[in-house]
């Protein structure tokens, strides 16, 4: 995740003047309407922001349509020509949001609609009815009700809407295989594009790790285990907390050396604090909620851990790798495509605090190996996961959709 940057004020979908999208100047770049559930802290949302910020302004214009709402996260969009619309969808099924979306698309007249994940999939129908000529859908990963993509109802829904999307984007090879084999999308309609990471913003700490802004996290010999993400069930930070508690209780001198930073907010935060409190380890952990200084915080970690139960392509793994950190991650979704076990980090089974504790203990006991894995992780990101490669891949999909 990137720190907040100045950007345009979000506006309600039915209240804004749209003259900026239909100026009389000739040959305006094509307009892409990005349809997502909401614009708040999250990997999918971060990818949308990064894409908008890095696509050249003379190639494409952008609008972001949130089916539900938005937060201050929207201020991370740096371009001043991007407008954000909120359709205020309530929880559950709601036919009215599709009518509002159809009306907005009729007013915007975008050249491309790009929907993301199952939550926005049904938006393809209003896009067709509004006469949008090019339609792209991308899959970013699973949630708690469909951890392995095996939910039959979700698969049937994706098949039902398959004719409405001319192009698909899969963020991982795992998701690409799912679209081909389970949704029966023809391979020629799928582009597999990895997330990119800003390697200038996310960079190694250098010779000395800067301390985190928390008492007790600096000092000689400290080993900081960190994670960043929404504290929701699918991210499973509680497994990391349990692994940390196990290490505190079993590793000699752990209370002096070991520290845990869990950055992010959500329903698991209080439960994580309660577990740490019951184990007498709350003073060894820092759970600050959402933060805007993630790149700097990453440079204060010694090890990054991602305990998710499901993932597409994790932005935070890539950001940690770009920061020169070894990564312990669960062996799910696209994680094995990012972390090479024994070279840039270690993979462990999901929901297994014992195996996670073993992996953390390995790096705690041999910091030289962690430094080597972190250096290799940075090299891998620079070679395979650049922001430039991601942007080029998306622009090629958009251009092919327009031609198609």
Find the structural class using helix and strand composition: alpha/beta
As a percent range, the share of strand residues is 15-25%
- CATH C-level class of the largest domain: Alpha Beta
| Biggest β-sheet description | 8 strands, parallel
Mean pLDDT: 91
Gyration radius (Cα, Å) is 22 Å
CATH topology of the largest domain: Rossmann fold
The beta-strand count equals 14
User: Count of helices?
Assistant: 15
Order of helix and strand elements from N to C terminus:
EEHEEHEHHEHEHEEHHEHEHEHEHEHHH
CATH homologous superfamily (4th level) name of the largest domain: Glycogen Phosphorylase B
> Tell me, what's the shape?
elongated
This entry's quaternary arrangement is single chain
**First CA to last CA: what distance?**
34 Å
SSE blueprint and pairings:
Layout: E1 11-12, E2 31-36, H1 43-54, E3 61-66, E4 83-86, H2 95-108, E5 112-116, H3 117-121, H4 124-129, E6 134-139, H5 152-161, E7 167-170, H6 173-181, E8 190-192, E9 223-228, H7 237-250, H8 254-257, E10 258-263, H9 268-278, E11 285-289, H10 294-298, E12 303-306, H11 315-322, E13 327-330, H12 335-338, E14 345-348, H13 353-365, H14 367-384, H15 387-403
Summary of the model, kept short:
By secondary structure, this protein is α/β, with parallel strands linked by helices. The chain is 37% helix and 16% strand. The longest helix is centred in the C-terminal third of the chain and has 18 residues, at 367-384.
